[in-house]
Amino acid sequence: MRPTELYIGLMTGTSLDATDAVLMDFSATASRHLAQVSEPIAPRLRQRLVDLNHTPQIPLKELADLTRTLGEQLAAAANQLLREQSLSANEITAIGSHGQTLYHAPDLGMSLQIGHPAVIAKHTGIQTVADFRIDDMALGGQGAPLAPAFHQTLLPEPLKTQTCALINIGGIANISLFRPDQPVLGWDTGPGNALMDEVCQQHFECAYDAGGALAARTEPDAALLAHFLSDGYFAQSPPKSTGRDAFHQNWVTTYLDSYQGPAPSPDTLLSTLNQLTAQSLADALKHVCGENLPEQVFVMGGGGFNQTLMQRLQDALGSRTQVRTSHALGLPPEAVEAAMMAWLARERLAKRPIKLASVTGAQRDAILGGVWQP
Predict the structure, then answer these.
(1) What is the tens place of the pLDDT at every residue in 230-263?
(2) 318, burial (CB in 10 Å: exposed 0-12, middle 13-18, buried 19+)
(3) Can you list the positions of beta strands (E) in the chain?
(4) What is the DSSP letter of 207?
């Protein structure tokens, strides 16, 4: 008998490597990941979006075109998932879509995502839930990260008596921190994979550092690492959030230009950026937890496949912390963010507030997102 509560989650992510569509079943007590597809983003569309990370200025006509074009790309991924699973649109309760963040401005109380949900709804024939950040921001919150509320549903009961962290390493990295009898905390720590990906594309003729093999060839430059870490964002206490409009190739160039040491080789730069992601994550946990670091850390996102990054994170946190991927929680690392979108869609249709006020600094928890009909 086919499950009766099926949702699709859509995510492009800050790394812009592909559009992920995940099929989730929420009809049982525990959610189940059933299937997923990953559709490459058309090169021209990807380049236009990457350029906006570097220079967040755009004519209104181009903004409108991108909003529709990405909506069509997201709808195509959802339709491909339906075809592969031999499902019809009327068997899916809803689609949850994050869209692509172009500009995230907590100081203004606004965050702009494109990939219009009306286009997705009309092109798939499935009601679509989207624009999840703005409700929190209207209440004074950061609007990010959204992940902690969903991450909490992934923890089995035995782990709820321990201090645990779930870390997403996409283009930007973020932490969800769970401690017994304390409010959930979550915040963006800074760069994830995106800066490393750009170095690979510029110097190594590859999209990303598969397994972290390139970064493993050279030791990081400790002085350059310290220089990168002098950015004021790393010292801020949560709640805080950031995005690719802050950490991008021009950010790296600016710090390299002001660096007093010798210019790093591409190998050394890549290795140092790898260490930057690991060190900034570990430093963030130490800043909040002190000596009581999490006993368990679960990594998701593309960073979970970077073995060099995983080992450096383990080394930075020490032997008292066990670092594993989200496979240990029953969800593939590459599926977690899109699965979260499916879950947020379900919660929106049920009109349940998402427990994020302790994470984002909002005045209260809020129902997140809007609904677009097919």
Answers:
(1) 999 999 999 998 988 889 999 999 999 999 999 9
(2) exposed
(3) 6-11, 18-25, 32-40, 92-97, 100-105, 110-114, 128-130, 164-169, 172-178, 185-191, 296-300, 322-325, 370-372
(4) S
CA distance 265 to 339: 38
Residue count of the chain, please give it: 374
User: In this structure, what DSSP letter does residue 81 have?
Assistant: H
Beta-carbon contacts of residue 55 (< 8 Å; ≥ 6 apart):
none
Output DSSP code: residue 161: G
Which of 203, 226, 228 is CA-nearest to residue 215?
203
- What is the per-residue pLDDT across 347-370, written as a single tens digit (0 to 9) for each? 999 999 999 998 899 999 999 999
Q: What is the largest CA-CA distance in the chain?
A: 66
Task: Quote the CA–CA distance of 320 and 159 in Å, as a whole number.
Answer: 15
The strands making up 6-11's β-sheet, listed across from edge to edge, are 32-40, 18-25, 6-11, 92-97, 128-130, 370-372
State the CB neighbour count (10 A cutoff) for residue 302.
25
Contact 254, 235 (CB under 8 A): no
Amino acid at 53: N
Is this prediction's pTM over 0.85?
yes
Question: Which residue is listed with tokens 């525990």?
Answer: 30
Q: Quote the tokens at residue 162.
A: 């321990």
